Structures are given as C-alpha cells and as structure tokens.
From TrEMBL:
Belongs to the glutamate-gated ion channel (TC 1.A.10.1) family. CDD domains: PBP1_iGluR_NMDA_NR1, PBP2_iGluR_NMDA_Nr1. This is Glutamate [NMDA] receptor subunit 1. Residues 1-20 form the signal peptide. One of its GO terms (molecular function) is ligand-gated monoatomic ion channel activity. The gene is LOC119642656. Residues 438-807 form the Ionotropic glutamate receptor C-terminal domain. NMDA receptor subtype of glutamate-gated ion channels with high calcium permeability and voltage-dependent sensitivity to magnesium. Mediated by glycine. This protein plays a key role in synaptic plasticity, synaptogenesis, excitotoxicity, memory acquisition and learning. It mediates neuronal functions in glutamate neurotransmission. Is involved in the cell surface targeting of NMDA receptors. Plays a role in associative learning and in long-term memory consolidation. It holds the Pfam family Lig_chan-Glu_bd. Forms a heteromeric NMDA channel with Nmdar2. L-glutamate binds at residues 527, 529, 534, 700, 744. One of its GO terms (cellular component) is postsynaptic density. Keywords: Calcium, Cell membrane, Disulfide bond, Glycoprotein, Ion channel, Ion transport, Ligand-gated ion channel, Magnesium, Membrane, Phosphoprotein, Postsynaptic cell membrane, Receptor, Signal, Synapse, Transmembrane, Transmembrane helix, Transport.
Length: 985
C-alpha cells in the first residue's frame, strides 16, 4: 500500500496544483462531499441530493451546517483519475468521496480513487464496485460500499439449498480472487453461522478452473462420477458460456441436474433452461445508491459531531505526512450506520461491505427468458434476511415441474457394522474354510494401521435386518467391520491459522461415524444409538428398535445365615415373646397358689388330693402352649388361672401363625433385591462412595453422560474406569470386579436373559432408539425409513427380537423368579444347630445331675455315719447312767442291811468268778459290777455286728492264746440275782 501511495505522490509532485480551497467563514459549518461519477446524469443527481440534504434538519446539527458537492468525471485511465482526485477534490477539503465506475472500465479507476483517498484516511463510498479485493482493509483502508460483493451470494445459495433440501453439492468457481472468496464464504457460513442441521451443506467436489476458458471437458469427467447432482457456479459471463456448452454435450443440463448460478453466469447467452440464478436488486440504479451514500455520510457526520470534534481534512496531496485522524473516526462511524434507504436496509459489516442487500431469484425459461420466482429480502420485523420462493413457478432442467433429487442414487452400497452381541456375532474364518455359512455374511476387517484384511463372518439381528432391507428396497452391498472397532466419537480440533481470524474448533469423528462423515461408507447397519451429536453430521432412519440406558450388575447372593429362621420377627419381638412366656408362667403359678379353689377332689377312683401348680409346672405349661405341644400334667386348677391359660393359648396361636406366614415369605419366597435402585441412586451420585461403575469409551452412553450437567460428578468418577468394549465390562461384572456397567438396555437385557445371575437395576433412562446411519443427503434415507416402518407393522422386528435377543431364556429366568425357592440346608441349618445345641445342653445337664447326685449321696452317707455315731454315743451314755443308778441303789440297800461279805451269795460268786474277789475300788459298790458291765457291752456290739448287712457272723473275742473268751456274764442263779426282793424281811 505504501509503495503504491508513494508512486501516486511522486506523480502528483510533477504537476502543479491549479486550484486550492479555503474556508474563511467563521460562522458557517461547511462540509464538502466529493463525487467521482461516470456520467453527467449521475453528477446532476448527486448535486440535487446534496441540495435536498441541506433542507433536511434530521441530518443537521445546526442551521449553519451546510453540505457542498464537488464532482469529477470518472476517467478510464487510473493515473488521470488520481490527478483529478488530488487537484479537484482533496484540494477542496472533501470529507468523503462517492465513487462509481463504468461497465467498460472495470474496477481499476475506483481502486485508484480508493488508494489516493485512503492514503489521507478520507472515506470512500463505492456505489457499484463489487470485487472481493475492496474487502481487504490492508489495501483499501477507508473503502466501504452500498452494494454487496459478489461472494456474498454464497449466503443466498445456502438459503436456497435449505429451501429445496439439498445437502450435498459441487462448487464450480474460477481461480481468481472472487472465485476463491465465494468458496470460502460458503464453507465458513455453512459451518459457523448456521446451527440448524438442515441448513448445513457439504461440498462433495470443488472444481476450480482458470479464467478465459477454452474447454471444460476435463472437469466434467470428475463431476459425472460424483454422487451429487447440484452444481453451484461462479464464473464470468464468458467462462459460463464455455461451461454451459460442454455440460450440455455431456447431458449434464438435462433432467435430474440442478444449477444455481451467480449474476455474471446468469447473463450468458446459452444459459440452460431451468437454471436458477441471482440478480441484485437496484444493481444498475446508481441514482438510488448515490442518495443512500450521501445520507449515510450525513448520518455519520451528525453523530460524530455530537460525540466529538471533527478536524478539517487535508487540503492537498503534496504533504505525504498528513494523517487525518478524524477521517479514521468518520470511517468507523460510517460502518456503524443502519438506515432505511431507497435501495433497502443499508448497513455494513466490519469490512465496510453492504449487508441486508436484496436479491431476485431468476428462473431461466425458453429463449433465455428470465422469470423471477422468488426474493431474498430484509424482514424488518425479525431484523434478518429471508428467502421466499414460489416452488410452483419453478421449471427445472429438462422442463420438469418436479424438483430433482439432486443426487445420483447408487445401487451398490458400502455398509459398515460392528461386533455387538446379539445384534452382530463375528466369527473368524478358519484356514480350512473358504466361505461363510448360509446364515452368515462375509464381513472383512480392514486394519487401517497395517492395511491387512482379515476374513470374518457375521450373523445376528442386524445382519438379518440388512438382508431384509436389501431385498425390500433393491440394493446390493459389501459389508465390512469397523476399522478401529468403535462406534465413533468426536475430537475437537482448532483449524484456525495465524493469517485468518480464529474460528470455533471443528469436530473430527472416529470409528463408524468417521467413516460415514468422510464418505468412505454409505450406510451403517449396527446398534447405532440416535443422539444429537451424531445427527448433526449423519442421517438417521426411523428407529428399528427403541431402547434406553440401564445398569447391569451381578445378582446379590441370598443373605441366609445360621439364624435365618429368626428373621420373621425382629429382635425386639423375640425378646418380648420370651419375657411374656415367663411372666405368664409366674402369674399362673401365683393364681393357682393363692386361689381357694386351686385344690379339689377328683372324680375318679383314687381320691387323693391334687397338688397345686408349682412354678416349674407353670413354666412347662406356658412353653407347651406356645410351642403347640401336648400337655399331660401340670395344668392350672383354679378358674382364674385357666382363664389366663385360654388367653395365653390365643396369643400363642396368633404368634405361631404370624411366624409361619413370615417364615414362608423370608425363606421360601424371598428374592434377592438389586443393590442399586437406578441412575438416581445416591451411591452412584456420591463420588466418595467406594462403588465402581463404567461404560464404553466414546459410545453414545458416554456422550449422554458428557452432556448431562447433573451427572457431571458421576461422569468424572466413571471416566477413568471406562472400557474399550462392552464384552470386557460384562465379563468383569460377572467376576465381581465391576459393580455396575451402564450400557444400552437391549444388550444388557440380552445378557441378563442369558445368565440368570445377572440383573438390570432400576428403570430405563436416556431413552432413544437404534437407527440405520447414512450420509447427509443420502437418497436412501426415505426408502430405508419406510421399509423399517413396514417391518414394525408386519411383526418382522418382533420376530427378530425373539430370535436373537431373548432366545427363550428370558422366560426361563422369569419362571425361575416366580417359582418358590426350595429350602436347603443353608436356609435351615440354624434349626438343626438349635436341635444339636439342645441335645448337647441336655447331655451336659444330665452329666451335671449325675455328678451332683453322687456328691449328695456321699454327703448323705457321711451325715448318716455321724448321726449313727452320735446316737450310739447317746445310748451308751444313757446305759451308763442307768447302770450307775441301779448299782447305787443296790449299794445303798446293801449298806442298809449291814450284810457281811461272806454270805452264801458272795461265796458262790467268788467260787464261780474268782476275779470278783479281787481288789475293788471304793466306787464299786457291787462285786463284779465292772465285769458285768463290760460283758454286757460286748454282747451289744456282737448283736449289732450280727444284724449289720456287711458282717455275716459275730467275731468272738480272743485272749492272748487266741482262745475265745466268754464275756457274757452268767445268768444269775437263785443265789445271785439282781432281784433282791427275797432278801427283804
């Protein structure tokens, strides 16, 4: 830019300025506006517009504010145009320049005006220049225009594609600046500004050609092999004639093809019938653009004067160092204008290009007749542009009234699938096998890393569906497995470079979705979940199976313990029952004990009196009634006790019946409950809980958790545990390594029906469906959707469910759930242990009783011996007392008679018992009394020994010579007797 400006200034220095402008008025506010116009009519209208502006107080800040128009004629020679601008406009101190151009001069002269004025920061308003070069603010720093550039027609193309429903196109453009600009505008606007999926169009093929064509044949060969039949053409009028000529020779302008062209191509003299083109409104109305330009300038100056001070513009081109700062600010105010003018809504973008420009949609008819069939206009109510086309008036190529499909429908498709039981079973071909079995389809795996092809055979739910679709809608196919074994997820990549403004990151897909987006496949027949992220880039048919997301976990084992039989009652109830037994037994005992009618005579033969109910019998009675055992004895006798017994019997009946019913529920009909209640379970939401859950990386379930804000904490926890495949996760659930696997309900229901140890937890969430995936704009979408709907109505899909998903195992598991459990040792082990404990306690008690009884017997023997010894001692004492008393009486009697010692009796005794005559102590009142006493004692002991059970015969006393001694005293003879009554006188 500086080099061009320097050249212009060097040229200007050679010539002398012939005019100068000075503003000497102190009171009036004068604003000069320059005009570089192409004819006298435009100059006249420019001055007239300035005159009208001076009488319009809405665009003036004071009465002294006056606008003056300074015009020059556009010269075909750009150098002369530069000198005229310096000598006749800049010297007049113009605040802005309005410029147009002749159709034959091109855009060189307006560019010269833009270079010269831009060097001094004087704004330039173009009213006819539409080249893309003027949008470059590095060159045209102060240029803006009331007409849109040519490449803005890409916006109308996108609206037309959306209106007609075309999503795959071929763009044909020249390799000049405008051609590349319209391609860039189309791609950028399609990706960044249109979020609606129906608007975004994909470019299948880009055909770029050099201007000044001689032949277009070489490009048509590539276009015929493409799938799209919608062509967007940007070319000059001359190049468009060559393209239409060659395309007609290839029959590419006939029925089934669609052409959207720009204004230049629409002017070709051989434009085919049915072509739709664009025509800018007021494109040739220079007078209207002049008026809008002047009023836009006046609006900007008014607002700028309100906010800041405007300095005077440069007065000549000699001073290369002049930099008009107010000119920069004025250009900024010009870009912010938005007014309603004679050419419509006038507004500008950041590049100074006109936006909200209206277009007519032109349909070419026979003999090059141009018929408007629609309009692209500004909707003031919504403040946006809208497209309105009357479809009934449109005639398509080949003079067809019906809209073409815009795409070539292939009959041989490349279909992809993925291993996912029960929808797709994959089997590797052995070395001995040449081809797959009858119910299988060959599905090779093309390894993208090493290029090796592996032979596999596929069968299952989706394979049967693919066979039915191919027969129903008549297409052939080649089936292959997903190259990376994944459904596909997107990766955000930043595509902006340093030379371009930053743009939002774009999504790159992997797996099956990536193959379809990159057009390496035509269809995906797999359990592919329909979700918004995928639907943004591919087409989906109607769901062939509705499903949701659920949780798979291992079925908990039964919580049978040794005390399972105690589960029907709570611990508190058991304690109360135990207490009640003994309380009732105690009350029964007391009632029977203190009742006056507790004892009575029985009516049967033995008339002995019944004993009252003791405490032990009362406890036995209470337990017997509770346990429903027969009571043979120990029943209550009083009326009050029997009333209590009847109440206790009713209580026992209710308790036993309740226990029996609950025991059946707990032990026989008990079913293990799932550990998790569903996705809202607090343990899943709580990241601190030690509970492992996972899903498959990059799957639709993973995307679901990623976009659910309320599940973000849970997703961060499970993200580290996610698996590569569902098979690995299910296997870990079976082994107990993974507690919960979150996946599609169809697959998990299949696994649960196949293995009754697995169970799905909670209700379905994230409901969606499985659909057939196709390319955007695929012609097979509607046909596949209609076929799937027919399959649902005919029951074919239900038959596939029964054949592949349930396999009849679901009914077996369901029957197992409804059938009562068979009680085993594990359930009733506690009862047997209780009986064994009772036996052990009984044996232990009997041992204790035996030991205790032996101890009591020994103790009783010792007491008997002691009691016998004490009695014998007392008897001996009594006998001694008796003998002593009798001897004392006899001694007293003898003393009283004064008898002599030598009586007849004494003589006889002495002769028979010679020891009687020995020495006696004074205590012996009667001779031989001690011997007699000793003999009597021996007799008593001998008698006792004779009657003792352990001594069978008496043992005689022995003397020193082992001879028996007769200790018995002789019976008293008449001369010796204890009875001494005969001696009494």
């Amino acid at each position: 830019m500086m080099l061009r400006s320097a050249i212009v200034l060097t040229t200007l220095i050679v010539f002398n300025k012939v005019t100068s402008f000075s503003n000497n008025s102190d009171d009036a506010e004068k604003y000069n506006v320059g005009g570089v116009l192409n004819d006298f009519e435009s100059e006249k209208h420019f001055r007239l517009t300035i005159s009208h502006l001076n009488f319009d107080q809405n665009y003036k800040t004071s009465r002294n504010m006056t606008y003056y128009g300074k015009t020059i004629r556009m010269d075909k020679n750009p150098i002369k145009t530069v000198f005229n601008v310096c000598d006749k406009l800049i010297d007049k101190r113009v605040y802005a320049v309005v410029v147009s151009h002749e159709q034959t001069s091109g855009d060189l002269s307006p560019a010269a005006v833009s270079y010269t004025s831009g060097f001094f920061q004087i704004p330039v308003i173009g009213i006819s220049s539409r080249d893309a070069a003027f949008s470059d603010k590095n060159i045209h720093v102060s240029f803006l225009r009331t007409v849109p550039p040519y490449y803005h027609q890409a916006d109308v193309w996108l609206e037309m594609l959306n209106h007609f429903g075309y999503t795959k196109v071929i763009i044909i453009h020249s390799s000049d600046t405008d051609g590349r600009a319209i391609l860039g505008r189309f791609q950028t606007t399609s990706q960044n500004y249109y979020d609606d999926i129906d608007v975004r169009a994909t470019v299948e093929l880009i055909v770029e050609f050099e201007p000044k064509l001689e032949s277009f044949m070489e490009h048509l060969d590539d276009m015929k092999t493409a799938q799209s039949r919608v062509y967007l053409l940007y070319a000059s009028t001359e190049d468009a004639q060559i393209i239409f000529r060659d395309a007609g020779n290839y029959n590419m302008t006939e029925s089934g093809h669609v052409w959207f062209v720009t204004e230049q191509a629409l002017s070709a003299n051989n434009t085919p019938d049915g072509v739709l083109g664009l025509q800018l409104e007021h494109a040739n109305s220079d007078n209207r653009h002049i008026r809008d330009s002047v009023y836009v300038l006046a609006s900007a100056i008014k607002e700028m004067m309100t906010n800041e001070t405007i300095t005077e513009p440069p007065k000549n081109c000699d001073d290369s160092g002049v930099n008009w700062e107010s000119g920069k600010r004025l250009f900024h105010y010009l870009k912010t204008r938005n007014i309603t003018g004679e050419t419509g809504q006038v507004a500008f973008d950041d590049n100074g290009d006109r936006i909200y420009a209206g277009y007519d949609v032109i349909n070419i008819r026979a003999k090059q007749k141009k018929l408007p069939v629609g309009k692209f206009y500004y909707d003031s109510g919504k403040a946006t542009m809208r497209l309105n086309i009357n479809d009934s008036q449109v005639i398509w190529p080949g003079k067809q009234k019906k809209k073409p499909k815009g795409i070539m429908i292939p009959t041989h498709l490349k279909v992809l699938t993925i291993q996912e039981k029960p929808f797709v079973y994959v089997r590797h071909l052995t070395d001995d096998e040449v081809q797959c079995m009858e119910d299988e389809v060959s599905c090779p795996l093309f390894n993208t890393s090493n290029g090796i092809e592996n032979d596999f055979c596929c069968r299952g739910y989706c394979i049967d569906l693919l066979k039915a679709l191919s027969q129903r809608i008549n297409f052939t196919y080649n089936l292959a497995l997903s190259p990376d074994g994944q459904f596909g997820h997107y990766i955000l990549k930043n595509s902006s470079s340093s030379s371009l403004p930053p743009s939002p990151p774009r999504k790159e897909w992997t797996g099956l979705i990536g193959e379809l987006v990159n057009e390496r496949a035509d269809m995906i027949v797999a359990p592919l979940t329909i979700n918004p992220e995928r639907a943004e880039y591919i087409e989906f048919s109607k769901p062939f199976k509705y499903q949701g997301i659920t949780i798979l976990e291992k079925k908990p084992s039964r919580s049978s313990t040794l005390v399972s039989f105690l589960q029907p009652f709570s611990n508190t109830l058991w304690i109360l029952v135990m207490v009640s037994v003994h309380v009732v037994a105690l009350v029964l005992y007391l009632l029977d004990r203190f009742s006056p009618f507790g004892r009575f005579k029985l009516s049967h033969a033995d008339s002995h009196e019944e004993k009252p109910l003791n405490l032990s019998s009362a406890v036995w009675f209470a337990w017997g009634v509770l346990l429903n055992s027969g009571i043979g004895e120990g029943t209550p006798r009083s009326f009050s006790a029997r009333v209590l017994g009847m109440v206790w019997a009713g209580f026992a009946m209710i308790i036993v019946a309740s226990y029996t019913a609950n025991l059946a529920a707990f032990l026989v009909l008990e079913r293990p409950k799932t550990k998790l209640s569903g996705i809202n379970d607090a343990r899943l939401r709580n990241t601190m809980e030690n509970l492992t859950c996972a899903t498959v990386k990059g799957s639709s379930v993973d995307m679901y958790f990623r976009r659910q804000v309320e599940l973000s904490n849970m997703y961060r926890t499970m993200e580290a545990n996610n698996y590569d495949t569902a098979e690995q996760a299910i296997e870990d659930v079976k082994k107990g390594k993974l507690m919960a696997f979150i996946w599609d309900s169809s697959r998990l229901e299949y696994e649960a029906s196949k293995d009754c140890e697995l169970v799905t937890a909670g209700e379905l969430f994230g409901r969606s469906g499985y659909g057939i995936g196709l390319q955007k704009g695929s012609p097979w979408t509607d046909a596949v959707t209609l076929a799937i709907l027919e399959f649902h109505e005919s029951g074919f899909m239900e038959a596939l469910d029964k054949a592949w998903i349930f396999h009849g195992n679901a009914q077996q598991c369901e029957q197992f759930e409804k059938t009562p459990n068979t009680l085993g040792l594990k359930n009733m082990a506690g009862v047997f242990i209780l009986v064994a404990a009772g036996v052990a306690i009984g044996v232990g008690l009997i041992i204790i009783e035996v030991i205790y009884k032996r101890h009591q017997v020994k103790k009783q023997k010792r007491l008997d011996i002691a009691r016998h010894a004490a009695g014998k001692w007392r008897g001996t004492i009594e006998k001694r007392k008796t003998i002593r008393a009798s001897l004392a009486m006899q001694r007293q009697y003898n003393i009283g008679l004064n008898s002599h010692t030598g009586t007849i009796s004494y003589a006889v005794d002495k002769r028979r018992y010679h020891r009687l005559g020995g020495h006696r102590g004074p205590e012996n009142a009667w001779t031989g009394d001690m011997d007699a006493l000793r003999s009597r004692r021996c007799l008593e002991e001998t008698t006792k020994l004779k009657h003792s059970p352990k001594i069978h015969a008496p043992l005689p006393l022995l003397n020193k010579n082992r001879q028996p001694i007769n200790l018995l005293p002789p019976r008293y003879s008449p001369g010796y007797t204890s009875d001494v009554s005969h001696l009494v006188v």
